[in-house]
Design brief:
Length: about 110
């Protein structure tokens, strides 16, 4: 078995760091169980905001039109992680959404 295949089946140090760092209600536990390689990659990208958000966007939006996609529960976990990261961890780098609570009525 290739080394990469073994690493894809369990949470590594970067993935554990990510899980430990996130609040319990945001923690992508189901994703970690079913897709540990995704959590490992997110842990690796945690300190690189542009790459972190870009990776999540790639996971959540199929731009090629041929992906099967994640189960809804996993997609919701990933969306929650993305929202938390953009709103709490690096709010200075994200563009506000139309419905973003950071926007004030003018």
């Amino acid at each position: 078995m290739k080394k990469a295949a073994v690493e894809d089946k369990s949470i590594d140090a970067n993935g554990k760091m990510l899980l430990d760092k996130l609040p319990e209600d945001i923690r992508p536990n189901l994703t970690a169980e079913k897709f540990p390689r995704v959590v490992n990659k997110l842990g690796t990208l945690w300190k690189r905001p542009d790459e972190f958000v870009e990776y999540l966007d790639e996971l959540l939006v199929d731009k090629r039109g041929k992906r099967k996609g994640f189960p809804l529960s996993v997609a919701l976990e990933l969306a929650s992680v993305k929202d938390h990261y953009e709103m709490k961890v690096h709010p200075e780098r994200s563009k506000a959404y139309l419905w973003d609570p950071r926007l004030k009525d003018t």
